[in-house]
Amino acid sequence: MKFRTGTLYTQKMAHLYGRATSSSCLWCHQPDSKIHMLSGCQSASIQKMVTEKHNIASRLIIKTFDKGNFGGNIIFIDIGGETRMAQQNLVLPAHVANRALPQWLMANLSADELRSCSRPDAICILPIGTKNGHKKAKKRK
Question: Which residues pair with 76 in a beta bridge?
Answer without folding.
Answer: 97, 123
